[in-house]
Design goal:
Layout lengths: L1 E4 L12 H12 L13 H11 L5 H21 L3 E6 L6 H8 L5 E6 L2 H14 L4 E6 L17 E6 L9 H18 L5 E7 L4 H7 L6 H16 L9 E8 L4 E8 L3 E5 L2 E5 L4 E8 L3 H10 L3 E7 L5 E7 L1
Helix pairs in contact: 2-8, 3-4
The structure holds N,N,N-trimethyl-histidine (AVJ).
The site of N,N,N-trimethyl-histidine has 12 residues, from helix 8 and strand 11.
């Protein structure tokens, strides 16, 4: 059975989503301009991200996929049967297939994603492939405390799934907050054996990191700039996309890729009737993508109340998959 929870209201994002409006106003009005990375993923942005995942330079997706595929039996052995999988930020709900294939008798799948339309299409096709798994999609922002549907009676435990190093979008402080929040949500409906399976990108040669966010086909640049296009469309903005440049670099002090949109000239932009001045060379900081060493990530998880129980990585130590128990 497939249930969609509060999806209808968000199917087509309202032209003037008040929260988007507020966040853009706060971000562009600040001394140092920023925009929240979670707004990348409108219809077009989600498509561009899927293209990024197939780029030769972008190693995280295919490396994590390989770890999941090759370590599937080991992972399934540790997690066990009859669990409800809660996916945070499910997007296209593709990787979950690998996990559902590997797990013995999975009871349920509860994906959470901000892009409701994208999620409902993905879950519909997934449900056809897994008729015995109870699927309940939740449209919402998983960085906030979200009320989840009651646990399934046939599920023994709730297992969180947070692949793709999405946690890298948070600063370490925010990541700690997310992990504490996830622990509370999973403990709530979970029994013995609940935990979190989470993909974390690793610190590595800065040249490899740099290439992954500066692909030669320009897809990452288009992904970054699409945020301005979304503001133009949904908040009646007049950003000239030719007057902003994609700029991404690795900051080794903070172990993170930073993505910016840099104004190529002095200009004034209007959004929802408000004006924002840009100096030549001024940036909008649009994304952080934090990288961790295995030890640093385990320390963070422990601080949030998890017990690091297992970790898998690839032979080149590009990416890590952690199993954290409660
Ligand atoms: C989805 C946040 C993991 O940080 O690598 C990819 C997003 N941004 N290329 C990442 C992203 C630019 C991605 N995450």
């Amino acid at each position: 059975m497939s249930t969609l929870v509060s999806l209808r209201r968000r199917e087509r994002p309202a032209p003037h989503d008040p929260e988007f409006d507020r966040d853009v106003q706060a971000g562009l009005g600040a001394q140092v301009k920023t925009l929240p990375a979670k707004y990348f993923y409108d219809q077009r942005g989600s498509e561009l991200f899927e293209q990024i995942c197939r780029l030769p330079e972008y190693y995280p997706t295919r490396t994590e996929w390989k770890i999941l595929r090759e370590q599937g039996p080991a992972i399934a052995g540790i997690i066990g049967p009859d669990v409800e999988v809660v996916e945070f930020g499910a997007g296209a709900a593709e990787k979950i297939r690998l996990l559902l294939n590997a797990l013995p008798r999975p009871a349920g799948y509860l994906p959470i994603d901000i892009s409701g339309a994208h999620l409902s299409a993905a879950v519909a096709s997934l449900q056809r492939a897994y008729p015995d798994v109870t699927m309940r999609a939740v449209a919402g922002d998983f960085t906030k405390q979200l009320p989840l549907p009651a646990p399934l009676p046939q599920a023994r435990a709730r297992v969180g799934f947070f692949p793709g190093s999405t946690i890298g979008n948070f600063t370490p402080d925010e990541a700690l907050g997310f992990l504490r929040n996830a622990a509370a949500m999973l403990r709530d409906g979970g029994g013995v054996g609940s935990g979190l399976l989470i993909g974390v990108d690793l610190v590595k040669d800065p040249a490899v990191l740099h290439a992954a966010y500066n692909d030669s086909a320009g897809v990452t640049a288009a992904f970054n700039l699409n945020l301005l296009e979304r503001i133009n469309r949904e908040l009646d903005g007049d950003f000239n996309l030719d007057a902003f440049d994609h700029y991404a670099f690795y900051n080794p002090r903070q172990h993170r890729i930073e993505m910016h949109l840099v104004s190529s000239k002095a200009q004034t932009v209007t959004v929802a009737g408000r004006q924002y001045g840009f100096d030549a060379g001024e940036s909008i900081h649009t994304e952080n993508s934090c990288k961790y060493t295995p030890i640093r990530f385990r320390q963070l998880a422990e601080k949030a109340g998890f017990r690091p129980a297992a970790m898998w990585t690839d032979p080149d130590s590009l990416f890590s998959l952690h199993w954290l128990t409660l």
